[in-house]
Amino acid sequence: MVATRTIDDTVLVVGGGLVGGMFALMLRQEGFNVEMHERRPDFRKEDIAIEGGAHGQLTNTTKRSINLALSYRGICALEQVGLKHEVMKLVIPMKGRAVHLQGKEGFTLQPYGTADQAINSVGRTELNELLLTQAEKAGVKIVFESKLESISRDGVATFTNANGVVEAIKPQAVFGSDGAFSAVRDQMSRLCHLDFNRKYVPHGYKELTIPADPKTGDFQMFPNALHIWPRHDFMMIALPNPDKTFTCTLFAPFEGPDGLETIKRGGEASVRKYFERNFADSIPFFQGNHISEFMSNPSSPLLTCRLAPWSVVTEEGAKVALLGDAAHAIVPFYGQGMNAGFEDCLVLLECLREANNNIALAIKNYDRIRRPAGNGIADLSLNNYHEMSSKTASPMFQLKRKVDKFLHSLFPQSWIPLYTMVSFTRIPYNEVVERAQRQDKILNTAGSIFRYSAVAAAAAALYLSHSEHGTTVRNAFDRTFMSFFPSVELKGLFSSSAAKQ
Fold this sequence. Notes:
501 residues, 7-stranded mixed β-sheet, disordered C terminus, FAD/NAD(P)-binding domain, Kynurenine_monooxygenase, alpha/beta, 18 helices, 18 strands, 8-stranded mixed β-sheet
C-alpha cells in the first residue's frame, strides 16, 4: 500500500508547458504553495527525443512550432507576473499579413490594425524555459518525469516517477494544464459526467524552414509580417525567428491532389513540382532544403476539443479544474492557442481573488465564465482558415476590411473589427462572436442598400448619357464606382453603343 503525502496547504499543477508554467507562477505570486508535476524530463537541460505518433507530436510541446504568435491577451498575463518587458525584448513584431499571390512577384502588406498594433513572434522553448525558471525562483516545486496515474474522489493524486516509484499526494486542488491529451481530464471523466468531443479536421500541417541569408546572415524576407501564401484549399505561412530564419507551416489536406501524404508518396520529384506549381516565389528562399524537409518532417494532425464541465468539486473533497489545451484544444488559424491559455490563467486568478481564495467557489465561477469563451475561440479559429487561405486574396475582402477600419475610426468603442477584437482586446471570445455577427449583419444590409443605389445610379447615368451634361455625370459616377470597386472594368459600359444594345 502506498502512503499518502497530505499537503493541505498546497495546490498541484499538472503539466509544465506554457500554460502550466504561467499558472504556477501566478498562484505562487498570489501566496499559494505550488507543486508542479511534469511527465517529461527537464527540457531545459535535456535533449528530448520526439515521440512517435500523433500523441507525441501534439504533447511534446518543446519540439513543436519554433515560434508562436503573442498578442494582447497573452501580454496581459505576462504583465500580471512581471515578465512583459523581459519577453517583449525577445519578440519580433509583425505589423500585418504579407500576402503572396499566385503567379505574382513580391507581396501585398495587409496591416492587422492601427500603426502601433502588432502580433509578436516569440520562441516557444525560450518562453517556456523562462516561465519555469521564474516559477522555481518564486518557490514553486517542480517534479519532472512524474506521470499522473489517477485522481480519487477524495482528491488524492497518484503519480509514478521514472524509476517506477508510486507516490500518492492529497493537495488542496489539482489544476490540469497538460495539453490536448490531458491525463487530468481523463481522470476528471471518472469523477463527473464529462461531455467530451475531440474532432480532427481534414487538414494537417508540415513544418519547413527558410534559413538566414547565407551571405549576409540576415532575413531573406521582410521580417515584420506574417507571410502567407493563400491557395484556397491549402496555404503556407511563415513566421520570423530571432536567429533570422523563418518557420514555415504548410497547411493542406492529408489526401487528394494537393494532399500532404499524396505529394510525399510521389517522391522528391512530386514535391518539386508541387512547389513550382503553387509556391514558386518561395523556392529561392529555401535554398533547396524544402524538398528534403518535406520528405522527412512529419505531417501532423489538427484537432479541436470541446468539453463540459471544465471543473469538478466532489462531496468527498476533490477539486479539479482544467486550463489551456486540456480544456479547449483549438486549431492554430487565429494564433490564439497560447493567448487563450494565458487568459484562462488570468480569469481563474481573478475568480480566486473574487472568492477570497475559496478554490471550490472560484473554479465553479471560472467554469461558468470561461467555458463559453473557449467554445467561441474554437469556432473563430476554425472559421479563420477560410479567411487566411482564400479571402486574403479577394478584393471584396479588402474592401470590407477598409470599411471596417473606417467605421472603427468613427466609432472606436461601438464598432471594432473582428480581428482587432480577437487580437488586441480582452473582450471574451464568445462576445466577440456575437458582436462580429451583428456588425456583419449591418454591413450586409448596408451592402444591399448600396448595390440597389448603384443600380439606380447606373440607370440614371445611362439615361444621362444621351443628355448634354452626360459626360460630366458619367465621369463622376465612374470615379465614385471605381473607388469602391477598383478591379471592375467600366470602360465602355455607358457608351452610346452600349446604350443602344
